């Protein structure tokens, strides 16, 4: 029985030009390249300059994804941006990006806030709409300017985060309806709000009319991140009717190289199959997965036909997994 699947037909990314190294940070707070790189695997991150907004990175990432897909913005039926750092409280950053790109009037535009799991959540929404036949194409973007909500005097958090955006163009394609299909084969999303305050902004519009700073109980997040990332992998593979033996790549949310290593070791995924960008992006929350995907496609690592299992975990807590045959 044939089935409509969402093919990822183009990916793109955008990073601010400004790079902040661990040595730069050691001049701002009491830290060192040695501490940051051994505890997190991060060596540098990109930081937005004054006057650069989340929407700017979305637009550039989307343009690259459209170009790589060989498509025009007029062909896009839905635009969704995953972010916790929107340009404005409202309207959605997706609306602003659509306006700048010249999207057709009438095309639905929305943001989703699921923190580091945002790209998987957004893909779930777009994929479901495509599979239901409501739309034929979608522009799915993950983007952040986390530097705007980082307390640059707090060494516990300021060394961890970075800015940027990644984008993917999804397109409906008729497939056979089995695990040899191309496209998004499964998506699973989860949340457990009992951890609402373990990783959060200390402010909010309704709460105190501010955007606030990132606060995190790093040790607690670390502990829960590992089983959550594993659940994302295992549940999405099960739904796709595939196993770890079938995967070419594991693409995790990029928060900490030690977390990623631990997940890979527990599941016996060979290091050569793990996509790592945390060393030069830091943690870019909702942007981290589409950024890593677009970079890996651009560098020729991830090729057409490869099976990629993706998993994420972040504030909420939210977590999830996704299996794609590119
Ligand atoms: O994106 C959502 C998911 N987020 C994550 O997955 C993040 C999860 N958590 C982590 O990655 C780690 O917990 C951190 C990297 C945030 C922290 O690593 P840790 O090994 O858990 O360190 P710690 O918080 O236990 O701190 C150890 C020591 C402390 O000093 P004392 O109390 O032992 O004297 C900290 O004050 O390291 C100190 N410290 C630092 N030292 C130098 C904390 N931050 C720094 C720093 N430079 N930047």
Write out key terms for the chains shown.
four-stranded mixed β-sheet, alpha/beta, 326 residues, 11 helices, binds oxa(dethia)-CoA, 2 domains, Peroxisomal Thiolase, Chain A, domain 1, five-stranded mixed β-sheet
Describe this structure in words.
This protein is α/β, with parallel strands linked by helices. The protein has 2 domains: 3-175, Peroxisomal Thiolase, Chain A, domain 1; 183-325, Thiolase/Chalcone synthase (Peroxisomal Thiolase, Chain A, domain 1, 3-Layer(aba) Sandwich), CATH 3.40.47.10. Helices cover 33% and strands 26% of the residues. It is built from 11 helices and 13 strands. The protein has a 5-stranded mixed β-sheet, sandwiched between helices. A 4-stranded mixed β-sheet has the order 8-13-12-11. Strands 2-3 form a two-stranded antiparallel sheet. β4, α4 (93-101) and β5 (108-112) form a beta-alpha-beta unit. α3 packs across α4 (93-101) and α8 (218-239) packs across α9 (257-266). The longest helix is centred in the last third of the chain and has 22 residues, at 218-239. The protein is globular, with a radius of gyration of 18 Å. Oxa(dethia)-CoA is lined by residues 31, 35-36, 39-40, 116, 155-156, 159, 218-219, 221-222, 225, 255-256, 259, 283, 313-314.
Query: Which ranges are low-confidence, i.e. pLDDT below 50, for 5 or more consecutive residues?
Result: none
Percent of residues in helices: 25-40%
Strand arrangement within the widest β-sheet reads 1-7-6-4-5
Helices and strands, in N-to-C order? EEHHEHEHEHEHEEEHEHEHHHEE
- At the third CATH level, what is the topology name of the largest domain? Peroxisomal Thiolase, Chain A, domain 1
CATH class of the largest domain: Alpha Beta
Total domains: 2
CATH architecture tag of the largest domain: 3-Layer(aba) Sandwich
Bound compounds: oxa(dethia)-CoA
